[in-house]
Design brief:
The structure is a homodimer of 453-residue chains. In chain A, α1 crosses α10 and α2 packs antiparallel against α4. Chain A folds into 2 domains: 254 residues, Rossmann fold (3-Layer(aba) Sandwich); 170 residues, Rossmann fold (3-Layer(aba) Sandwich), CATH 3.40.50.1100. Chain A has a 7-stranded mixed beta sheet with strand order 1-4-5-15-10-11-14, sandwiched between helices. The first copy, chain A, is globular. The termini of chain A are far apart. Chain A is of the alpha/beta class. Chain A contains 17 helices and 15 strands. In chain A, β6, α5 and β7 form a beta-alpha-beta unit. At the A-B interface, α2, α5, α7, α14 and α16 of A face α2, α5, α7, α14 and α16 of B.
Chain lengths: 453, 453
């Protein structure tokens, strides 16, 4: 046991605050706009959808926000999460670099999504909300939210993107086990869903559509609120506990990461691990590269356009300044359902535009190959989403070896793949198509945006 | 946070030795017999099947056996495992008792089976073995062994009981992901399998049949050995790390268990948590009750007969003194596939006969109800096997409340249910039949034993 394999924190070391990158951003994000007037909207416009405490967090400029005791009480059942050094993977690669991963799959939901689900359910309950609605892609977010809502005594209705609903039936059952109701999206329950089904009865759905449906239900009743699993500032805020822990753990390891990597859907798991390291760059002059890996089939960061767009398909959200492929873009049905989102969160978009973070896109087959290599060496079968982070880490290690240097690489293993087994089955059947969105297809997708600019 | 929710050990506190109950048993188990001569057999008879180090452990009378560094190196990636106090479950029950659970599902395999898989693969590799065969029921053992074999550079062929192979396809894919070959049992690869298929082409299979098939392949080649996931003394030895950790953790909690509970298939997860507490009873005069919970459809401990019987269906093993329903008994296809075994390990059998442990049987629907209650309150969705331990714990808490006392209850949550989702689907569809073996059916099963007594 010469090498450190595992770096733990004690319960007492679990961070007591979330970190708000807005306090340290050189260029603050542009304001959300009212779609009709194109005027900046204030936080009050979000009140029909979110509880006030989350709206405050959404726009807060405070650097640190206290984690409430009731949230810590549940966090402590699975946090602090471990960091592992991937010694066997390093050996298999023959790399000179050090590869560390933060493992967020060790909780009831199997992914990092519990971190914000618990916080969101708590704040909603505190403000008298009775029922919640939400969307889910692959189902990690939906299952995290299902237990969190049940724990705090809230009902939950989940709109699950149809392609995932059909290919990952286990996730639906898990949500049912936690007492949530799950509906495939697009559904006939909402005007937004019916409109999509009229155009395409076989629509695979998208996170954008599912968000529209969940919001439509929420705004009809004052005791029902909506909850989003990524993208928004307050969601990303809650995920920063990952990076705050990782900073403490890397300190214990005696190493400091040259690069921090996360997969990218709306931005929450990447931002969660990366933003505390970005603070170290901005405030303490450290120089860690922050790398997001997105699917080539949904490349908003690498091929999308930075512009105002809706966060959902039907255009119910305010206009947000973000990298986007167009809010009515429907990505190919890759197995990393959590990465099938047309846009990027406002904070990540601004930071990417300003050059503080990097982005690359990968094909799903190569990512699954990396996932299998990882599983055979490190034991844990990764969620399809997490395989993008793994593929990014493998690229970095190989690049360093070509350059003849040793780097310290840290990535976020955001979840396990025990509920995504069907995707691995397809991989072994050699039935995992690659999709790469061309520039022309991106142009076409953006041209479909149905509001005047 | 008034109550302790989680009790952890540091890496340094991970036990360095396994505990061998044979050293402390008042009545030593009867010897295994040669089926032909009915004479006691020596350890050398096992040499075609197992490596020498494991055979030595099988018959050792040493109280403690050192855990090799190579095994510790992998243990440390997921051990020490946490103990949780089920505060939310306690609240839901309104019980005065304290309920603790040791969670063994937090590793790559999702269950306690990793503890012996790693040890067995290590010893086989060390003695020059190239290939392994094994059986698996629900697949927890098979997946644990798949990664362990790959880690130590061994090939693995897994015979998976057909009813589980068909109902839990995810487990097969997970084993494939770790590079193992998986065959449904009974298969046409072996004489044992072909014989069963001739009698019943639709045979659901059983652990006993799968063991016969795996042994038949192993004995044909000196570089291929067989590996068993429960029942045997050395397997139970490796699992005692669970109870050794639990002892240290309960000490930290300030409580000491009045009762320790595990579900029962062949005996390894129950014995793993219970035997160190039994040592405390035997050596230090403590008085913890040790309770196993088995399925009513496979009630060898509560309705079976203590006698010499084969460990496998085809009669390839030595005759072992155990509680059994007859080695050719095929249990009903309940979802807790890991509990579908006709016999009980020799150590547990002797200890039950001598009154040191207790056994009860439960129906699967009640166990799943307990599993759902547990998941909604504690978050973790339990493996179907583990729901039997939960149901046992719920019984104990309710009984204590009726008696007006508060007891400390500890059970082994042996695995998570993320790969057993189809069983929960059946539960929600109200399609989970109960089976209770009657005394007459037990008589009939025992009458089918095909060797003279």
């Amino acid at each position: 046991m010469e090498k450190i394999r595992k770096i733990l924190l004690s319960d007492e070391e679990m961070p007591r605050q979330w970190y708000n990158i807005q306090a340290d951003m050189p260029n603050k994000p542009l304001p959300p706009l009212n779609p009709a007037t194109r005027e900046p909207i204030g936080p009050e416009a979000l009140a029909p959808v979110f509880p006030m405490e989350l709206i405050k967090q959404e726009v807060s400029q405070e650097r640190y926000i206290e984690i409430p005791d009731e949230v810590r009480d549940l966090y402590i059942t699975y946090r602090p999460s471990p960091i592992f050094r991937a010694v066997n993977l390093e050996k298999a690669l023959g790399t000179k670099s050090k590869i560390y991963y933060k493992y967020e799959g060790g909780n009831y939901s199997g992914s990092h999504k519990a971190n914000t689900a618990i916080a969101q359910a708590y704040y909603n309950k505190k403000e008298g909300v009775l029922r919640m609605t939400t969307e889910t892609g692959a189902g990690q977010w939906g299952s995290a939210m299902s237990f969190a809502c049940h724990h705090f005594g809230l009902e939950l209705l989940v709109f699950m993107v149809r392609v995932s609903y059909d290919s990952k039936p286990g996730r639906k059952i898990l949500m049912n086990a936690y007492n949530a109701k799950v509906v495939p999206s697009p559904s006939t329950m909402t005007a937004a869903g019916r409109q999509i089904l009229e155009m395409d009865p076989d629509s695979p759905g998208s996170l954008g559509i599912a968000i529209s449906e969940a919001m439509e239900i929420a705004v009809q009743d004052p005791y029902t609120k909506y909850s989003l699993g990524s993208v928004l500032n307050h969601v990303i805020l809650h995920q920063t506990i990952i990076g705050e822990e990782a900073l403490l753990q890397m300190e214990k390891s005696g190493d400091y990461p040259d690069v921090v990597i996360g997969c990218f859907g709306g931005g929450s798991n990447f931002s969660g691990i990366a933003f505390p390291f970005l603070r170290e760059n901005l405030v303490n002059g450290r120089k860690t590269r922050l790398l997001t890996v997105e699917p080539s089939s949904c490349p908003k960061l690498t091929k999308g356009k930075f512009m105002y767009d809706f966060g959902d398909s039907a255009g119910m959200t305010p206009l947000l300044p973000m990298y986007t492929l167009g809010h009515n873009f429907i990505p190919a049905g890759i197995h990393a359902g959590g990465l099938r989102y047309h846009g990027a969160g406002v904070l990540v978009s601004q930071l990417l535009k300003d050059g503080f973070i990097e982005a690359k896109a990968k094909m799903q087959r190569e990512c699954f190959e990396g996932g299998i290599l990882f599983a055979r060496n490190e034991g844990i079968l990764p969620a399809p989403e997490s395989t993008y982070a793994i593929a990014g880490a493998l690229d970095e290690a190989r690049k360093a070896d070509i350059e003849g240097v040793s780097r310290t690489i840290l990535f976020n293993l955001s979840g396990h793949g025990h509920l995504d087994i069907s995707a691995y089955e397809k991989y072994f059947e050699n039935n995992l198509p690659d999709h790469e969105l061309t520039e022309a297809e991106v142009e076409q997708a953006l041209s479909k945006i149905d509001f005047p600019d």
